[in-house]
Amino acid sequence: MIKPVYKRVLLKLSGESLMGSQGYGIDGAMVESYASQIKEAADSGVRLGIVIGGGNIFRGLSGTRRGFDRVKGDQMGMLATVINSLALQSALEGIGAKARVMTSINMAPVGEIYSPAKAREAQDAGYVVIIAGGTGNPFFTTDTASALRGVETGAELLLKGTRVDGIYTADPEKDPKAVKLPDLTFDEVYARGFKIMDLTAFTLCKENNLPIYVFDMDTPGNLAKVLSGDHIGTIVKNN
Q1: From CA 202, how far away is CA 236, in angstroms rounded?
Q2: Which among 32, 12, 155, 134 has a CA at the least distance from the CA of 87?
Q3: Which of 14, 56, 185, 225 lies at a 20 to 30 A Cα distance from 233?
Q4: What are the φ/ψ torsions at residue 72 (nearest 5 degrees)?
Q5: What is the C-alpha to C-alpha distance for residues 201 and 199, in angstroms, rounded to an integer?
Q6: Neighbours of 68 (CB within 10 A)
Q7: What is the spatial order of strands in the sheet that 47-52 belongs to?
Q8: What's 26's DSSP letter?
Q9: What pLDDT is stored for residue 63 in this prediction?
Q10: Using CA atoms, how far apart are residues 56 and 23, in angstroms rounded to an integer?
Q11: What integer pLDDT is reported at residue 226 of this predicted model?
Q12: Are 46 and 103 in contact (CB under 8 A)?
């Protein structure tokens, strides 16, 4: 059983992570693994908000390179995040968790329109709140959406779940000499040019004193370790 040291967190998951080894779309086994970890966290009393990207289905910027209008491409990407959010909601409900999808644009009955107050109220009632549709505006990434929703809902920590177990001096998949950095300040990340989130998201976290914790979400049990206070990833915060 998790003994959480955090009361309210925002978990950011990449759309690509839902692909598993398929290369496209949604891997049911991967979604179920995530759902199991998230349910365990919710059962421990942690108030959870989740933002998922849509890159496993459609990414606005890549669509622009293929000739789509940028605004339309970003809107298509927003819809991809809704598909992923519904998949996670279904997986959570399938194992007995309470989950609610909120969307940044009106998409009833797919999901109810998001507001910070409603999201917090649902979290306090024991629901995992999955916030879909990005910010609802083009030209902003789901990284920025996760930072914004984290600040709006009063999260103590922004968890960035990836397939890498933290921030390294170089890409650990390409450089065997890369060294893991367990603690960094926002200013150090700026100075060293680490690309953990886009600058808009990163600046929003820095200015609102919302720490970012980068960890490997693909290994079952890691979310529980992070929420219990085990330092298995990299935390980025102000001094």
Answers
A1: 10
A2: 32
A3: 56
A4: -65, -40
A5: 5
A6: 17
A7: 112-113, 99-103, 128-132, 47-52, 8-13, 157-162, 212-216, 234-237, 183-185
A8: -
A9: 58
A10: 8
A11: 97
A12: no
